[in-house]
What does this fold into?
Amino acid sequence: MARRCQISGKQTASGNNISHSHVKTRRKFKVNLVSKRVYLPDENRWVRLRISARMLKTLNKKGVKSLMKKYGQDLRQLQA
It folds into this structure.
């Protein structure tokens, strides 16, 4: 499974390590993913999500439905 947030689509980014002598070497910035079970009251079921820590914070504030709508995701495609 790819290291990708299921809601926002955020994934591994690349950039440079810069040393003291300003030599640049390539590196990867990995996403901080968290597995979370979320209850959908409309459909009366639980859904397991792999989302970034930032999306988890936003999910707790705004709710699942509004986040899925904002990022163009479909609730019916999610597995239990």
